[in-house]
Structures are given as C-alpha cells and as structure tokens.
Amino acid sequence: MDLRLVHLCILTLSCSFAQDIDLGTVIFANVLFRHGDRTPLNPYPTDPYKNESLWPVPFGQLTNLGRHRHLLLGRWLRNRYEHLLPDTYSLYDIYVRSTDVDRTLMSAEANLAGLYPPKDKQIWDNDIKWMPIPIHTIPEKQDNLLAAKKYCPKYDYEIEKLKNSPEIQRINKENEKLYIYLTEHSGKKIDSLESIEYLYDTLSIENIFNLTLPKWTTPVFPYKMQKLASMDFKLPAYNKILQRLKSGLLLGEMINHMVKKQEGALYPDRKLWIYSAHDTTVANLLMTLGVFDEHCPPYTATVLMELRVNTKEQYFVTISYKNSSAEPTLLTIPGCLALCPLHQFVKLTKDTIPEDWEKECVLDWEQHESSINLTTIFGILTSSILMLISLVFMIIGFVYWHYKREHNQYYRRLTTDPI
C-alpha cells in the first residue's frame, strides 16, 4: 500500500479521534508566528520595480497590511485564550521574544495591541488606545534559539553536505532548463532551490501589490516556481542532525515550559509564551516535529503548542497550525495521537533536542578536513607566501642597516687639509 495513503488514513483517524473526545482545557501555550506582510528583501537585477521609491516602505519592512493582519491575529489570540489571560497586561502572565529584525519586532507590537487593548487604569492616554508591552530580543549573530543564526560549523558542514547530496543534485539537474531560463530573464544566477525561493518570494509580493509582472514570468509563475520554492523550506531542518542544530533549542525551551507548568515550577507562572519570527522558523519547527506539509508559510502563519489538562488531571499536548484567516488545523506528530500525553510527547521529541548545542556544533577532524575546499587552501598558501616574502625583505633591510652601521656609512665633516 502507498505509504502516503497510510499516513493520510492515520491522520484522518487521529483527527476524527480528536473531534470525538474532550480536548480538555488549555492551561499554557507556546505561540510561534511569522511576521506580517513586507516589501521585497532585495529585488532581482532586471526587476522593473527595483527602485525603492516605488514602494510604500523601504525594502524588507512591514507594510500597513502586515501591521493590520497581526492586529487581527492578536485579537484572535485574545478570543482563544480569554479563559487564560486577564484583560489587563501583567509581566507574570506573558513573555514575548522576537528576532532582532524590524519586521518581526513591529509584528509583535501590532499583535500585542490586539491581544491587550488597554483597560481601566492601563489607559494612559485617551487619544491612544495602546498598551506598551516589553518585547525581548538579542542580536541575530548571537541568537541560536529563535533566529538560529549563531555560527555553528557542524550545521554549515551538514547543510552543505545535503545540498551536494545525490538527491538534491538530481532535483537541480531535473530543473536545469528552468534555472537557465530564470537566470537569463532575472539577471540573477538561479541554480538552486534557495535561489528559486528568493525570486519566487519577490514575484509573490509584487503580485500581492497588484503590480504587472514581466511577460517572461507567465510560463513559470506561480506554479512551476511554487513547487520548488516550497521544497526549499524543507532543507534547513531536513534530517535529525540539522533539526537538532537549527530548531532543537527552540523546541526544547517550549517543552521545558510545559513540563515546568505541569510540575508547578514555572516561575513566574506564565500562561503564554510568544515568539515572533520568520517563515523559515515556522517551517523548521514543523519539520522538527515531523508535521510539515510542504508549502511556503504565509504571513502571520502560526504554530500553537498547547498544554491541556482534562477532568482526570491528565496532561496532554496539542499542536495546531494556523496558516490563514481560517481556524487552525490540529496536527499529529508521528508515534502519537492528536491529543498527545505530555510524557509521551517529551519522549518522542527527545532525539531532536541537543544536550549541549555549543559542543554539538564543533566539527570532528575528518569533517574539518573535508570542509576545507581548494579556495580555502589557495587562500592559506597565498597568505603564507606573502608573509614569507615580507619576512625576507625585513631580514634584508636589517642586514643592510647593520652593514652601514658597522662600516660607519654616515655623513662626515668636510676636511680642510690641502690636497
């Protein structure tokens, strides 16, 4: 029997199971969402809309539509967790973390404006119905939790190994004509799933803005490009090693929150932990959980990891995914039901959470050797030769100076004796 059919049957059964039983009450939730709508990050060379002045905000920034979508998502979260959150903000109830990027920070702010409209004593200005709430972040290059951009040699080695694998090279080979076509018309070298996704993202945004796309895009956008762009979101967390190093810390923190909540040891005793991040963050977490359905996560795509308790005081975890304005879809991680007992959830995800991330990022010697390519070797040899030449000239200069000194090669007073 087709494995995909088996998986579909299991998913259908677990979904119907979840509908037939009491899901209990949510007592804590980890919420991860993508930022709202933005302008293109970096238009392609032949892009007729590459002049930034043609856009309402600079490249890569959150648009008014993006702000509004997150305001609405915040109101939706308020409605979902009305039983859990008091009407007024308290630092003991919620913690918000964002990547250190303008659009994610602004999305979090807009979201919180919908989640916590000020009431009573928290109204500090009658003309501004807004409550300032702290959003925590650290520089991207230091962030191995949410941005996942802190330097990790092992991850770089493994992702490069994947990109050069027969499987990915076969995909590139099969789409070689498309790559050449896109390269010729976009003016940018397109030779991988990553570069396809970059171009697809730009065209998608221009399409959302109702801009007329160049005629050359008609045969390839959106369908031919969309399939490959969606595939690209699987790569960063494609296998267990990549999952541990890319998304394992975030999943581990989320699980730690729920375990401590069950034990009554979460301090402060928060109800909601919000993460504002990117489409890749959403895809990586879903991949790590084994529930990613190949697609490009849209703006405000949201993952809900909720801790629930039933009338028998039993603790369960549910994973839901909200990728549009519709209600979220209940997902089922491999090896469990949609309503997964907390202890079993912990057991099933244990192999994707690193015990010591810094240590696991270190390359062993064989990997270190194979990661040194010819360009690196040439660079090392060139630097060494230049240093050697500089050293030789320094020695020659010193010897010449010493020779002049020993032979008294200095200016002398002119003699006045007759010749």
TrEMBL record:
A GO molecular-function descriptor: acid phosphatase activity
Alphabetical UniProt keywords: Disulfide bond, Glycoprotein, Hydrolase, Membrane, Signal, Transmembrane, Transmembrane helix
PROSITE patterns for this protein: HIS_ACID_PHOSPHAT_1 (PS00616), HIS_ACID_PHOSPHAT_2 (PS00778), PROKAR_LIPOPROTEIN (PS51257)
Residues spanning the signal sequence: 1-18
Reactions performed catalytically: a phosphate monoester + H2O = an alcohol + phosphate
The family this protein is said to belong to: Belongs to the histidine acid phosphatase family.
Protein name in the entry: acid phosphatase
Source species of the chain: Cephus cinctus
